[in-house]
Specification:
With about 500 residues, this protein is an alpha/beta fold. It has helices spanning about 55-70, 75-90, 95-105, 110-130, 165-180, 195-205, 220-230, 240-250, 275-290, 310-320, 340-355, 385-390, 405-415, 430-440, 475, and strands at about 20-25, 25-30, 35, 45-50, 135, 145-150, 155-160, 180-185, 210-215, 230-240, 255-260, 265-270, 300-305, 360-365, 375-380, 395-405, 420, 420-425, 445, 460, 465, 480-485. Bound molecules: succinic acid.
Length: about 500
């Protein structure tokens, strides 16, 4: 393979592409390293340290040393530092977006959107940290006074995924730091550079040494420390359900607080009375965002019989017009998938649906590039038992399933162990409320395909996760409640 060192991504600040890990305020390297390739071109983006157990333990020790002084600062003082970090991210948003597209593949305009989304969590929690109010509880006895205060949980370990290499970092780091916790982050080894660039700017913003540590490297060795070390009070993970279950089980040997953002199998329900154009735009936004690689992507597209043909034809026309390509080389609608495994799953789901009688009605043209590209595809006549309805595809495959009644679609939707997001398109407000209440999931979009924002709680039920991120609820995951029961004498 011809390695083209993509050191010159056209960055105004080339030092944001940092090939080192941040431990206790020092940038460290290791003897061996991990190569990171651009999924659109397979060119080398750079190399990051191959950390293991030793570096993970050192990072935990650094976070431990930093914890007391960071906790002792006022929330206002911590908020001011976080605010500087937010402003630095905005000032460098173009570089951060280019780096993100280079390592992850999403279209550049989506990467720019992700950087603003990532920054929004820092802005939000810089403020929200000041509002960690407690309670005064009317005493249970005449001479008792009861108050409840909130305290940072302690050292947090975070493991973040490749599909949102910046936003999933700040959605965890910002509330943790605002609450007064210190943190060790392990970003995905496929997309570590966004996290490391955020670390460079965090240091420049004045986040003290050891408060925010970043290690890249061996998932198993690092994961064993982050889930098993008794000094770590809380573990937070975004990723697949099988991996999340294993990591959470490991955390129980030291009874850590655990937050999990896991896989979904989001239904996208279009009723006969929906506005067809709005529904098609909603499907495009939800299904094809990040080339189908989000955990809240529409996975099962359930369309009522009376509007089915109209939705299928409109969706096909939009998908056929997609431009697929390298996000750094010009305006694109779709990028590559992250790797060969993702391509194999896309084709497995497509072939399985076709073998069960589905019909391909539209395919976008893939580019003539060496990267991990597939053709965005629309299928009709998809059977309910097709794999793409049972498991997350995590790719640009829209399979339309027909249904007739409200009761039928509700029971189809709830027949899964996943419970993350759902979408309903209808012109009937009563139906929207009724169906939304009946769905077993953590988030519902009504007449919209985009539900994510820093001000609202993000998270699932059933096997889609534990806890909520973003919003004022997101701070609670990093705070312990303490009861102060004071006997004041007679
Ligand atoms: C995810 O896919 O994990 C996050 C998507 C989002 O925040 O919208």
């Amino acid at each position: 393979m011809n390695d083209i060192m993509e050191k010159s991504l056209g960055l105004a600040r080339p030092d944001l592409l940092r090939e080192a890990c941040l431990i206790g305020g020092l940038w460290i390297t290791t003897e061996t390293d991990i190569t990171v390739r651009n999924p659109a071109t397979l060119a080398l983006v750079g190399r990051v340290p191959d950390c293991g157990r030793v570096e993970a333990l050192t990072a935990v020790a650094a976070a431990q040393v930093a914890f007391r002084p960071w906790k002792a600062m006022t929330a206002k003082a911590r908020g001011a530092i976080l605010r500087r970090w937010y402003e630095l991210i905005l000032a460098h948003k173009t570089d951060l977006a280019r780096l993100l597209t280079a390592e992850q593949g999403k279209p550049l305009h989506e990467a720019e959107g992700e950087i603003l989304y990532a920054a929004s969590f820092i802005d939000w929690f810089a403020e929200e940290g000041k509002r960690a109010y407690g309670d005064v509880i009317p005493g249970h006895l005449p001479d008792m006074r009861l108050t409840v205060t909130k305290e940072p949980v302690g050292i947090v370990a975070a493991v973040t995924p490749w599909n949102f290499p910046a936003a999933m970092v700040t959605r965890k780091v910002a509330p943790a730091l605002a609450a007064g916790c210190t943190l060790v982050l392990k970003p995905s080894e496929l997309t570590p550079f966004s996290a490391l660039a955020l670390g460079v700017l965090a240091q420049e913003a004045g986040i003290p040494d050891g408060v925010f540590n970043i290690i890249t490297g061996q998932p198993q060795a690092i994961g064993d420390v982050l889930t098993g070390d008794p000094r770590i009070a809380k573990f937070t993970f975004t990723g697949s359900t099988p991996v999340g279950k294993k990591l959470a089980a490991n955390c129980m040997s030291t009874v850590k607080r655990v937050s999990l953002e896991l896989g979904g199998n989001a239904p996208f329900i279009v009723f006969n009375d929906a506005d067809p154009e709005a529904a098609i735009s909603g499907i495009i936004a939800s299904k094809f965002r990040n080339t189908g690689q989000t955990c809240v992507c529409a996975n099962r597209i359930l369309v009522q019989s009376g509007i089915y043909d109209l939705i299928a034809a409109g969706l096909a026309a939009r998908v056929e017009a997609f431009t697929i390509g390298d996000g750094l080389a010009g305006r694109t609608d779709q990028g590559p998938l992250i790797d060969g495994r993702a391509i194999a799953k896309f084709h497995d789901h497509l072939n399985d649906a076709v073998q069960r009688g589905a019909k391909i009605i539209a395919q976008a043209t893939p580019p003539d590039l060496r990267g991990h590209f597939v053709s965005a595809t629309v299928l009709t006549n998809v059977r309910r038992d097709a794999r793409l309805n049972q498991e997350e595809t995590f790719g640009p495959l829209a399979g339309l399933v027909r249904f007739d009644t409200e009761d039928e679609v509700i029971s189809m939707v709830n027949d899964t162990r996943a419970g993350l997001a759902a979408y309903i398109f209808t012109g009937d407000i009563a139906r929207a409320c009724r169906v939304s209440e009946a769905l077993e999931c953590g988030m519902v979009g009504v007449n919209t395909g985009l539900i994510s924002t820093e001000v609202a709680p993000f998270g699932g039920i059933k096997e889609s996760g534990l806890g909520r991120e973003g919003s004022h609820y997101g701070l609670d995951d990093y705070l312990n409640l303490k009861l102060n029961c004071v006997y004041i004498g007679s």
